[in-house]
Amino acid sequence: MAEAQNEVKLAATNPEAARHDDDEAAAKRAKKILIRRPGMTGGRMSWFDRRNVKTWRHATQLAFVLLNVYLCVQFYLWVRYYETGGATLQVARPDGVGGWLPIAGLMNLKYTLMTFEIPPIHPAAMFLLVAFFLVSLLLKKTFCSWLCPIGTLSEALWRFGQRVFGRAFLPPRWLDLPLRSLKYLLMAVFLYVVVTMSADAIEAFMVSPYGLIADVKMLNFFRFIGATALITIIVLMISSIFIKNLWCRYLCPYGALVGLLSLLSPYKVRRDAEACIDCAKCAKVCPAQLPVDKKMQICSAECTACLSCVAECPAQDALQFSLRPAKEIAANGDVQGVRRRWRRRTLSGAMLTLLLAVLVGGVIGAAKWTGHWETLIPDAIYQQLIPRAQQLAHP
Ligand code: SF4
Ligand code: SF4
Predict the structure, then answer these.
(1) How far is the CA of 33 from the centre of ligand 1 (A)?
(2) Whose CA is closest to atom 5 on ligand 1?
(3) Which burial class, exposed, middle or buried, applies to 19 when counting CB atoms under 10 A from its CB (0-12, 13-18, 19+)?
(4) Nearest protein CA to atom 6 of ligand 2, as residue
(5) N or C: which end of the chain has fewer CB within 10 A?
(6) How far apart are CA 7 and CA 10, in angstroms?
(7) Ligand 1 centroid to 150 CA: how many Å?
(8) Pocket probe mutation, ligand 1, options 249, 308, 312, max atoms within 8 Å of Cβ
(9) Is 319 touching ligand 1 by the criterion CB < 6 Å?
(10) Which atom of ligand 2 is nearest to the CA of 292?
(11) Whether 218 and 323 share a structural domain
(12) Are residues 117 and 215 in the same domain?
């Protein structure tokens, strides 16, 4: 009894030691030897360790948020120049804002596929869409948890809620499932609109005054936001503090689309049953509530490849973001055998960051190199349209 009390006291005073003991106990229960992942001390990996996948993901998220803030500020200055009739600072138009025009990107993609011509209006929207589709096809739904600034905000809100209130919520399963289908419904509506448009109709929309400055209209939506839209955004943000990934999990049509594409990704979260000690830590931290500890690979469209599960796993080679293991290598409990099974098939945080940069940067570079990145609209048209953007209605 006294021993048990001492253990409880030890756990309360030294949580790291308790985590360590928990892992050992899980290994014993599973009748396996726990081989700890290198770099882990007290069940955690230092933030400064280059092997820490969380550090790489958060650094990439931060870089993308900063990039988007930079794009927004530059775009705002560019718009102000035309609004003030040239009285303010003149800056170049940041074509990267096309990333905020996914519908224009989809329209342009359809137009290109139908006509084999790259449209001159908002081509960057299409190239960025293609880059994010490629990322999803090859590297799961990393777009959502590594790149998207809305995904980052959503995550920051529920983590804040978890810190303040001790937990974040997910609706019960009976409600979670129908709510999750909402995003697919929205996706289907947008896809239907674009798919049923002819190439001529797309061209007519793009060269209409509204289409030419669709990016300015998007900016003005937030600058001169109406009461209903503002209240909706505030309600969504407050709810996101309590409900994990509310926007991404239930409402984002873009996330729904890249989630479906991600099902084809050769890289997935994969578990090695021989190295796994069945501690279930991976399932506990999964924000999508996936049974990571029970599956050999995660094939769900809800897996955002955040790799929180991989970061939390204490056992070496038990959980990784990887290609299929070499099946022919039977480890039979041999640690080196398990190693060989996964050799050259796993992606570290650093490699994943590098691949994301190469894929997105490569598509942007190719578009720039071939002269298809910039929107080709004469200055005089911007001078005419931007000052009266608020009066332009959707055609
Ligand atoms: S399975 Fe792992 S990578 Fe996928 S969402 Fe859950 S924690 Fe993130
Ligand atoms: S894969 Fe999951 S259950 Fe297995 S050791 Fe890692 S954290 Fe524990």
Answers:
(1) 25
(2) 303
(3) middle
(4) 313
(5) N
(6) 5
(7) 18
(8) 308
(9) no
(10) 2
(11) no
(12) yes
Residue 288 in contact with ligand 1 by CB distance below 6 A: yes
- Residue ranges making up the domain that contains 94: 54-262+354-391
pLDDT tens column, 202-244: 999 999 999 999 999 999 999 999 999 999 999 999 999 999 9
238 and 368 inside one domain: yes
| 49 in any annotated domain | no
Domain identity same for 302 and 324: yes
- Among 266, 261, 281, 283, which residue's Cα sits nearest to residue 321? 266
pTM score = 0.90
pLDDT over 90, % of the chain: 77
Residue 72 within a domain: yes
CA dist 263 and 337 (Å) reads: 29
Count structural domains, the chain: 2
Distance 352 CA to ligand 1 centre (A): 15
Asked whether residue 104 falls in the same domain as residue 9, the answer is: no
